[in-house]
Design brief:
CATH class of the largest domain: Mainly Alpha
Number of helices: 15
CATH architecture of the largest domain: Orthogonal Bundle
Strand content: 5-15%
Number of strands: 6
Oligomer: single chain
Strand order of the largest sheet: 3-2-1-6-5-4
Structural class: alpha+beta
Distance between the termini: 124 Å
Number of domains: 3
CATH topology of the largest domain: Hypothetical protein af1432
Length: 517
């Protein structure tokens, strides 16, 4: 049977009291060290019949003084150090060791205090870094969800890289391959200095140009103006610049500046910024690849939209006209430029889902049967599926899906009602209906402007949003006023121009010779 193993305390259980055992052993050692001399002296005194009382008392007193005033004090100091070490290893706050020993134990305690102080400082830095990382991730999440996500991300990287390195300024410049120049993509500064956005640096020129050309990081001392920052109040700064490269080809330069030449950047700083630069280069390249894919997909969608109209000669130009009418209505309603652009794009793409409808239904000259109507009513959903993958068209998706909803909730595909329908979709529905009314269709002739206005007034509040209808009617009224004014101007014969002397030219004079146009 194997011998029993000594019990090993697990985490969370009290450790054996080594300190007490140590103190006990020291006491036992001093006991033996004092008892043995006493016995020797006592035996000698018995043999020689001598009186050694004073000697015995002296030995005992010396032993007790040595133990209680010297050894025991040292042992207590060692116990304190051991307890603090145990607290550190168990993850507890140890605090300082108050040991006034002028010997090796005192030096050990002071070293322990320095180590724990540095450890606490590192823990504080770690907690600060965690909080910074949490905030950074939160801001990155917001940036990713926006259309201009890459620009926001790059700005965040510049700001946080500079902050992490104790720098006050930073720039990100990218390579213009055609012109072989660096241009400013984004910058950051905490002291109001800015970089000229039109700044161009040829590859090989200056600090940034040399870093890009040689694909090698540089640490230098220079003025911020060397990187295009404003010169006002500038002083020599420590500069750290690293290349952004992919497959040994330069794509840009990442640079940070620290005020004052007395605080130069270190190799560790260079390694950190170089690592960040590598990730930035990959992010930029991925963004460019995704942008190329998105652009190709967008061009394909536009081609599909044209293909839909090419099927039906009656709908030629319909999508562009709907986009134009929608922007006119939105402008009349006082909406901003962003929604005007969105409506124009939505107008062009609103019927793209008809590419998935059979021609015998799509081009049928007569009225559709109920089953055919159900099939036709799927085109907004099909259009949504086609447009949705394009991130830049994110705001168009809902308009494409809901442009056939009715204000009274009787539309399709979702049966949304009133304000639940996106405003852009309500505007698009009015523009789509208006163009359908004023153009010839296989099943009817176009309506006059007056008939169109009457139909819209009749459908306001049921089929269409009354506010959007009112905006359309105001647009039409202004158009009629412009046409009337143009007709009136054309009906009035031009007055003959006066001669230089102010006399009216004689009848039959050539207008061209008198400067008339």
């Amino acid at each position: 049977m194997p011998p029993a193993q000594p019990h090993q305390p697990s985490n969370g259980t009290p450790a054996p009291r080594h300190e007490e055992r140590l103190e006990y052993r020291f006491a036992l050692a001093f006991g033996f060290m004092s008892v043995i001399p006493i016995l020797i002296v006592w035996a000698w005194a018995k043999v020689h019949a001598a009186d050694m009382s004073l000697a015995l008392y002296g030995i005992v007193g010396s032993a007790l003084i040595g133990y209680f005033f010297i050894t025991r004090r040292i042992v207590r100091s060692m116990i304190v150090v051991a307890q603090k070490v145990r607290a550190i290893t168990s993850g507890q706050a140890a605090g300082r060791i108050d040991v006034a020993e002028p010997n090796e134990i005192g030096e050990l305690a002071r070293s322990f205090n320095r180590i724990t102080q540095e450890l606490e400082h590192k823990i504080e830095e770690l907690e600060s870094s965690r909080e910074l990382a949490r905030k950074l991730l939160s801001r990155i999440g917001t940036a990713i969800n926006s259309y201009e996500g890459i620009d926001n991300l790059l700005s965040l990287i510049i700001e946080n890289s500079a902050a992490a390195l104790g720098a006050e300024m930073g720039t990100l410049m990218l390579v213009d391959g055609e012109k072989q120049e660096l241009y400013v993509k984004t910058m950051w500064s905490n002291n109001g200095q800015v970089v000229d956005p039109q700044l161009r640096i040829r590859l090989g020129d200056g600090i940034a140009g040399s870093v890009a050309r040689q694909n090698h990081p540089t640490r230098a001392i220079a003025q911020p103006a060397a990187l295009g920052f404003s010169k006002t109040g500038a002083e020599e700064s420590a500069i750290l610049s690293v290349p952004l490269q992919l497959r040994d080809h330069p794509i840009g330069v990442l640079t940070v500046l620290r005020k004052g030449a007395a605080r130069p950047f270190t190799e560790d700083d260079e390694a950190l910024l170089g690592s960040i630069g590598s990730q930035v280069a990959v992010a930029i390249e991925n963004y460019r690849l995704n942008l190329d894919v998105e652009r190709t997909y967008l061009e394909t969608i536009m081609a599909l939209a044209l293909a839909v109209e090419a099927k039906d000669p009656y709908s030629a130009g319909h999508s562009k006209r709907v986009g134009f009418y929608a922007t006119q209505i939105a402008e009349e309603m006082g909406l901003g430029e962003e929604i005007l652009r969105t409506l124009n794009d939505a107008g062009i793409l609103h019927d793209i889902g008809k590419i998935g409808i059979k021609d015998e239904i799509l081009l049928k000259p007569g009225a559709l049967t109920p089953d055919e109507q159900k099939i036709m009513q799927q085109h907004p959903v099909i259009g949504e599926a086609i447009v949705k993958p394009v991130r830049s068209l994110g705001k168009v998706v809902a308009l494409v899906r809901h442009h056939h909803e009715r204000y009274d909730g009787m539309g399709y595909p979702a049966g949304l009602k009133g304000e639940a329908i996106p405003l852009g979709a309500r505007i698009l529905a009015v523009a789509d209906t208006y163009d359908a009314m004023v153009t010839d269709r296989p099943y009817r002739k176009r309506l006059s402007v007056e008939e169109t206005k009457r139909e819209f007034k009749k459908g306001a509040g049921s089929q269409h949003d009354p506010a959007v209808v009112d905006a359309l009617l105001r647009v039409l009224e202004r158009k009629e006023l412009r046409l009337t004014a143009a007709k009136d101007a054309a009906a009035v014969p031009p007055m003959p121009p006066a001669s230089p002397s102010g006399a009216v030219p004689a009848k039959g004079s050539d207008p061209e010779t008198l400067g008339c146009r």
